[in-house]
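Two proteins follow. First one:
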Amino acid sequence: GGCSALEGTCKADALDDDSDTGRPLGPAWINRVVREEALPQLRPSLVRQEVDELRAFIRNCEARIRLLKELRAIAASNQSNSAPASSVEIDVAQALHGQMPAMADVAGDKDSAWRASSDDFVVSVATISQGDPVAFMKLLPLRNNRAVSGQGHTPIGQLALPTSLVVAVTEDGTVRVFTPSGEMALTFSTGHEHPVVLLNVPPTQNEYLIATADSSGHIRIHKLTVRPRRLTREEKQARRTGPNGERVSQYLGIQANVTVQLHAVMRPSQIAKDVSGERLTCMVLASYQGARYLAVGDDKGRVAIFTKTGELHAELEIYAGVPVQSLSGHIGSLVWVSGSEWGFIDLDDEPKVRYMRCEKFSGRITAAIVDGQQSQRVIAADGLGTIWVFSMKSKSRCRIEHRFPERSTHVPLELATISGFLLALDRSQETTRDRASIVAMNMSVVGKSRNDPKRGPTITWRRWIAPPKSWSVLKRNQQGDLMATLSKDGMEIEVLEVLMQVYAPPMGDVLGNLKLPVFAVAIIFVIGFQYVRNQNSGEPDAAATDGEAE
């Protein structure tokens, strides 16, 4: 009843049994194992793979042909057939017999439809994972090394310096600074004793400031210093040897040395006196004639303006008891939105609140920013989500310059501008479909009629994303713009590069029809000048000849 391993009569089951593992294995079993391992499964040839793909394609086509025959049989079936048709068959028959509508009736408004895919213009740079949830995130612009040096080249050590930084702050006040590629540059504590509720950075490259505010109204400004990183002698020696004996380049890794120091601490006096739980709602850094200011709005309708050193510059009241929804910086002034009104705040020696009134506009403004290309133009969104463009006659009067298509965006909206385009974050579908969208609108259509042949598409692209906790847009010169989104749980920051260029039409003929007359007059002047010069040069020679003859 047993088997002989030496004779090769053992069955596979007996060999696989754990009870037989102690038996000596014969050469027949060994030869069988070696023979099976020595013959690996051969992959089919390329011709065989192509034939298999063609056969699969043929089977797919045959299945489609059968489906089409069934649909044709349903369409040609007699309605008086004794066998009742199912509802599905009736619907299919009606759809096949019905007349196709015209494309003009099916297609929507050409202005509200986007013409391109966002993947053609938006490229993911990095995804930065966080260990702890992040509450707020901003993009901090840095100076361009080439622009600062004013030369055609820069030192090699400065080539890798980033042109921007990603600033993330947690609720407990911990700030993390990253490069756009995702490298950690710095982390520090702001020193807040209460949860952080606001974060802001300056929109320009003059100073690297980070302003944070907590729930108690305390505001702390930290100043960053960014320099090229210089390795010590020990670090250079360690890179020459490397962990595995391989030499490591000194230009690998982050090349910026980022340091921080506390710059100023401030608190609005009204919040310090108020015991009813007043809270800050918005904060912005702005400048006026080279001086830096920080403005904060609260839920009581007040705005406090500080200098960058922490001194109180002014306290203004917009609407008593109406929260200040947003503040955005502009050259020499601030744009505010409160309730259904909006306007400007001057940042001169005597700040003043100005309320805007626009002709033929009676809607409610929910968001407003100044166009980054034209300072006399304001982009605003009304209560229905329609985006308007206003031209400023003064800081209290304006007129409607353009209205983007209705229902292309919906409230709530957040606006940002880059060169030639407007980016709008549409959060209207966060609660219903758990998604949001970023819409790129073409600003070159402003001021052009719908029948203008030179007018381009109104909406360039729309990008659907998961609902972000916050987002930030940074306009850059001579390179792609940056856009960053913070996930809803605060555990992930995605940095995107927006590669969009504004079409600049070629310069037309400046002279136009005056080209020939101008050239004719110029030629006459040249000939006349040459004639007069020759006449003047010939008179002395004639006088000298007469003298010699005498």
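Second one, unrelated to the first:
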Amino acid sequence: SQCTSPAFGIGKSLEGERELLKKSKISLVNIPYADRFYDKVQQTLQKVEHAMNKGWNTTDPIIMPLGDFDYVRRDLPVYQKGFDALGITVNKRFKGGVFTADHVQDPKRYNAILCLSFNTDHCFPPESFKSIGLSRRVNRIKGLRDVVWSKDKFCRTMNAATKGIIDEDLLSFTFPCWVMPTDYKNLVKYSKENDIDQWIAKPRSLGAGKGIYVVNTWEELTLERKKGNLIQSYLTNPHLIKRTDADGTVQRYKWDMRTYVLCTSVSPLRAYVYNRGLVRIATSPYTKDCKNKTSCLTNTSINKKVEGAQLKDITWSLYKLRKYFTEQEEDESFDEIFLRIQKAIGMALISAESAFMKQYLKEGYSCQNCYQLLGVDIIFDSDLEPKVVEINGEPSLKLTGNGKTHYDFTKRNMARDLVGIVYNRNSAVSNTNLGRRLMDWANCVSLDESFESSNGNPDAKRKKSKRSFIGKDHIEYLLSTFRERSKLGGFKPIYPNTRLSEQYERYLKQLHEKEASLPPLRSNGEPRYNAHANGRRLRLHHLVTALQDKSALSVDTELGEGPMKK
């Protein structure tokens, strides 16, 4: 076969794929590689691109800030620099901060919503998501709180996805967890089987480290069944930062990392992590029993209240962490550690795909116009292997007031680059080689199929290939991926990511095999709505992996300012 790259192995066309594509008018059939075919592909891509961006991206965007007054006053100025750079109009906060259902449907008021609030219903009725329409952007992902934002829902989602996964190496991205009182028996059973004798208890809904404590004995654990908390296994070997006190004593301090993640699609996943997270360090030397809260909890909101604590001492930039690792002669490079962070976050968010799909298919809504900034907290074991602790859907962008601190610098530049990605008006069709790469792919897989059907005879007549059909939803995903990749700024890809494609494929294959083995209906007659059962999700992974190379998706590619075309 002439297609030597394993990334081109898309697999057989799925049942119903051809019919779907006929309806969608997306056809990449096996015809001779020629300019006329390229023109046809480009025209098709342009039609799809215009249809999915015809509102916010082909007219001047008008941002409507909604939400609680204090949140808007705190966070809107941080985003403003990004909007100003793109010449985007930002209206004043809507009176009262909340749209009614009628306001949401009014096309004259806005074409992008910026919701700044802990609760979406403080911006607009959550049931009005569908009324926003795909032509208007909104910085809220429907169902996020019910899938990963709340601590107990994050636990439920991770447990549902990873149950039955055979490869234990794939499950190291987060902690085993249980929701009390329902999971108490499973907690005891798992802990005994895995020699776990220390846990951490968290209230389901509180934030900023409130109500968190360590459970050190089995006697204490028995009391948890009545409290309704979330229980996680406790990391008994955290990586510690060394510091020398004034008297020369070397102390070790616990730390974690707040990463900023931009999620532009949840099912299938498309997400990016900013390269300037915040390192948060405890104010007291680490003790295993954690009786002193400031020795084990790294939340800035807790540690900044300790007498004598300085923000510069309890929060570091990633640059300072990199420098510290170099001084301590850590074996792993910082770039390798950051790639592990990308993988851990990616695994957690891929685990949530089926939960999101279940919500969306029930309502006939895909949230294509949605995006959201997430605060993802990461902790590291002594081998610098990262684990996702929790996901926050409304990370604070509060500034210190001193614009020269790394704390402020990180948030301002992250918000600017986020706006650049989300409101990038460049055409992926005009300014990238997506069309040419799709032609290469279609030609390649058809050659593969002809080679197989002819028993290796290169002179045999080529046939039309079922493998070279692509769903409209996959085309839309590719267009968004290419457009976003052209303006990443300081964001780095979580998924898709060619450096992690093999690890992701292992996980996606196991999710597919697990979900495909389940009956399509639950015992109550309700459909399962699995994202991975029919194989299309894995097929998309193969496709986007095949199309990602330096010439196709390089963040250094110089792009013109070609507009979207009808």
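SUMMARY FIELD: Residues 434-453 form the longest helix (20 residues). The longest strand covers residues 250-266.
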